[in-house]
# Entry
Amino acid sequence: PPEMVSDQAEKLLDINDILNGNRSVYFPRNTGREPLHFYLTSAYMSIFNLEVSFLNLKVVAVFANLLTLFFIYLLGKEIGNKWVGLASVLFAGMAYWPLLFTRLALRIPYYPLFVAPVMYFMIRGLRRQNINDILLTGLFLGLGLYGYTPFRIVPIFVVFGTIIYILHRPSKNKRLETIFALAVITLISIIVFIPLLRYWLANPDLFGYRAFSRLTPMEAGFQKSPLLIFLENFWKASMMFFWDNGVIWAHSVPGRPALEVVSAALYFLGILSLVVRYIRKRQWIDLFLLVSIPMMMMPSILSLAFPGENPSLNRTAGAVVPVFIVIGLAFDSFISTFRVRLSGKFGKLIPLGILAVLVLWSGLNNYDLVFNQYYRIYRASSWNTSEIGEVARFFIESVGSPETTYVVGYPHWVDSRLVAINAGQTGRDFAIFPENIVETKADPRAKMFFVNINDTESINLLSSTFSDGVLWEHESEVENKDFMIFFVPPLAGAGADGS
# Structure
């Protein structure tokens, strides 16, 4: 994404607070945020002495995504084989869905980041009854609760997964060992969760607000029966891979499927194959995988008070892990079928040719979605705060100062905090209300006002207040994003510090 939106402003301000000594366990700004993304990004910026910026926010999110791909490989290898793992990583690594929410640089990547190791170590632990795998499941389950709010569904999924395993294992000893394993996972995750648990107990309303405002009618009443809304949401979320992934332009191409045509076809074949195989063989891992997808989408499905927000690619982000495992299984099965049925020289070349065509086709589809369709929509929908910030930075570093740089308030225009961040002044807010413009006349320093091109009242007020001011229109690189600049020269002898 070329521009920040207000969500990134909230993140960078929290990070800036950490760099200035704040050590919160939970960040209350903007209805509450888990801390992991902020502390990791703060550490990265501090260690390498980097500016608090959108790019550096992105870098840490990208590393989170790369680590997710590593665990997706391990999970695919555990469920199938190394080719399943590699195929899952290949399609997940170039898919538009995770690429977009990763580079948006919010906390979203931390949902799949912890879903992947929880599923991997849980499956290993249940299969082998290995205490180390059980302990690691608990560790990652606890850590995941520090990442992104929708991860709170995963402890419930762990219980469901354990029940599925028990129902498919008739041995009494196995059942007792599994119940003990669940107890250990619960204990370890609670120990890791204790700091957040303490905050939750002290501030239950704030900690639960983000989730319960969507689940319950605390903000908006239910439009119809909650059960009916749930069923409709479930259907829409299930179909988002093939039909409509929602309307949020910040992390999706609105109105199109979450998967491009190759991945969607493989996903459909993979789900069908798992269902048929489960009916025939009753393997717990197949049902576990099938159940994991709707469970990871529950934070979106349970938006009962605001059904228009479902489906959303951020609250379903945890489903990235099982969805691309299913795609990897289908891809491996598809290619293996050709290898088994064809012999001779062409029998080896044809599967390779099919593999190359599918991968190239999928790659080109995703490339177009990310670098063409999404980029155009995002650029047209977001405000050009980087352009305004660049002009503000030049003014501050030449004849002006941060204290005399202003963004005049206007409905539905730029976030003045983002202008300050882009100008290298994180923590400041350049906002000024039109009624306060006259008060700045007492300051003898050079002043610069950024004004919405349609705000004729503020432009007239500035012109009448500062007779020596200069007004000009800044032509933006983005259509319909031009803005006005009003420059007031300093009084004779006035320095940048006002002296």
Observations:
- The first strand starts at residue 405 and ends at 408.
- DSSP finds 19 helices and five strands in the chain.
